[in-house]
Write a structure and sequence with these properties.
With about 160 residues, the protein is mainly alpha-helical. It has one domain: Ferritin (Up-down Bundle). Helices cover about 80% and strands about 0% of the residues.
Length: about 160
Amino acid sequence: MTNNTGKLPLNKIHALDTCSLIEERCAHIYRHFEKMFSNKPVMAALWHKIANDEDNHAAQFKLAAHHLGHNEKDVGFIDKKLIAVLDKLDSIHRAVETNQLSLSEVFEIALVIELDLAERHIESILTYGDYGLSDLFIKMEKYDQGHLELLQKAVDSLTISH
């Protein structure tokens, strides 16, 4: 993670902090799924693994924000797309905590979350390229794809066993 152009503007630091919050929110949702399906060890292990990955992603964003520091440019800018993603995840989080969902509904929610994350990570590759952070977002997008594959395999195995 090299920084080719000096310190990150404060708005980019705030965006990385928001990315970290998004990843943390995903981890909370996946941990809730883990608890919901604790009586199914394979499903609980899947949600546990993905939640841990999301925690790791959150830590990487925090580390990037801390490592690159900031200067005082662009203070007033807020990334509305990131805030919208965070709001959507908050809404999903509230819904999954207050409703009893089926396994298929949970997988549907997880697939939507992972597709949204992949899209944001791809957009961020260009946004943060000048700051040497493209590799971080490329790595995150690869994890998103891995999560999508894991989820699809789990869905396929459920379909076959029923």
